[in-house]
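Consider the tokenized backbone below.
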């Protein structure tokens, strides 16, 4: 039987060779997933032997990670706004960057707003908003059946009230009017998809591909959102690198108080506009 230290060292070497960026960190998280012990305990007290059954289960997970499967798909969960959301292949993994968008929505709320999250994916934004403002009426939409299912599951898992519906953008929401609409739509230009990190390429193109210039969904949302916003309602959008000016421009016709906010890395990440 290997010791924990040997198993971690071997796994980290294997992951490094496969090009995984944070090999030892990932190895410790995968081993923690197998044994149930916190990763730091495993790293601090590595002289214990690892039972053969655990060693075999660990190796199977390391194999998957060496194939550049995203860590969060293997672990089956990812943190977002202090919540732990279920993840699943076929649905985009929640990103820390998106917390900047969530915060802008929360900052504009007092309690009983009607909120819509378009392209909800795992339900991250809708679930976090519903969790922190339990009296809000929170709706979520996605064109992917797997995403809608997962968003519903995450709402239950986190104890948030979210009405998640299947359909193309506003289609499932008829003539409803919202106080806040948030969205992290697909925004990567189609031509850039092939150059993405291996892990991101294992995520669904449906959640990433923003058309030839990356702006296809913003054009539709900017055009359709005014009919679904209450007077003075806010539209809050996550954006990709270099898109702040273009997306602000798309909002100019129907929105005022247009502003850009950055994420924790200091990159422009959110465009906000208030319905005129
Ligand atoms: N932030 C994601 C990435 O860069 C893209 C998500 C999206 O298109 N909305 O991988």
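A designed sequence for it:
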């Amino acid at each position: 039987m290997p010791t924990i230290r040997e198993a971690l060292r071997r796994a980290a070497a294997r992951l490094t060779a496969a090009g995984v960026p944070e090999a030892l960190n990932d190895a410790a998280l995968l081993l923690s997933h197998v044994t149930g012990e916190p990763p730091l305990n495993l790293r601090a007290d590595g002289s214990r032997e690892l039972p053969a059954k655990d060693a075999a289960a660990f190796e199977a997970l390391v194999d998957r990670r060496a194939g550049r499967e995203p860590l969060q798909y293997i672990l089956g969960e990812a943190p977002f706004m202090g919540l732990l959301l279920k993840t699943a292949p076929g649905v985009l993994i929640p990103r820390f960057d998106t917390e900047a968008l969530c915060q802008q929505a929360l900052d504009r709320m007092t309690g009983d707003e009607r909120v819509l999250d378009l392209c909800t994916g795992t339900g991250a934004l809708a679930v976090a908003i519903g969790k922190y403002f339990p009296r809000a009426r929170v709706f979520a939409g996605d064109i992917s059946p797997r995403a809608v299912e997962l968003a519903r599951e995450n709402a239950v898992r986190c104890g948030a009230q979210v009405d998640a519906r299947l359909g193309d953008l506003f289609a499932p929401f008829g003539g409803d009017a919202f106080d806040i609409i948030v969205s992290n739509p697909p925004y990567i230009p189609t031509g850039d998809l092939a150059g993405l990190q291996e892990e991101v390429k294992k995520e669904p193109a449906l959640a990433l591909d923003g058309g030839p210039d990356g702006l296809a969904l913003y054009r539709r949302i900017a055009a359709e959102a005014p009919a679904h916003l209450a007077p003075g309602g806010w539209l809050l959008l996550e954006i990709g690198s270099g898109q702040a000016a273009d997306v602000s421009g798309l909002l100019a016709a129907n929105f005022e108080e247009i502003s850009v906010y950055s994420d924790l890395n200091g990159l422009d990440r959110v465009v906000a506009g208030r319905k005129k």
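The CA atoms of residues 186 and 206 lie 7 Å apart.
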